[in-house]
Amino acid sequence: MAPKTNGTYLAPADDLPALATPDLGEIEMAELSGVLAHSGRAPKLLGRADELLVSLRARIGNIEKAAAEASARIEAESRSFVPSDAQPPDARFVVGKVNAATAKTRIAEARRELEKSSEEDRAEVLRQLASLDKTAAALLPLFESPGVVLSRAGIGSVDREHYQSQLRSSGQVELTAFARLAIAKKDRILGAAVFARLGEMGKEHRPFSGIEFAEALVGPEQKAVRTALSSIRHRFQEALNANREFRGGAPHSLSRISDGLARRSE
What we know:
Elements: H1 26-37, H2 41-80, H3 89-117, H4 119-139, H5 146-151, H6 158-167, H7 172-185, H8 188-200, H9 210-248, H10 253-265
């Protein structure tokens, strides 16, 4: 059975358009081709996603710090205001209330201005993470299982055509020998030909399990790439959640729980 994606991917809500069917541009296609050609590229893409998430959180942290400093300054100014003793008690009470309300409004306006000043930078980070997310979404089905990965090795190549032609009439003993050779040499193209031949044989005539064979040849790599791709999607969701919390001005418990569970599943 093909492994399932770890964690839970949540829709991006209103921060960016939904990405149910990735519409890949030139950048995403280049990254997709890069991962297919060299699986070691996937962890590097995850590293880039991690850097972008750290960058976004740093930006938000700086704005939150500036907002807290502005709030403290405005509140200090508000507290320093002392109504005149010449005013009746009721009037002083009203003036104090008005002063407090004015301070609250000024604090809200200061936060809105700071939020607006960082909007372009935050949007750019989210756009870059969205691009990585689209790449990961397109690649995940191509790394669904070791069998899926192995079956496309060398497809259309002269070597694979040669191997498949040679194995077309092979029996159980010969096929087993070639399977052992493929594992020993880590020859994926030969392995793909063996895997294809197994698929042509009736289940009762197969000398070994195709699933186990694919796992032995490409399983660790498939798992590592799939984990990296799933993690990229998690990072994008974490970024959306962090940005949503910042815009809302308060923590979102459900989002934080989802982010934590996704991290634990990696």
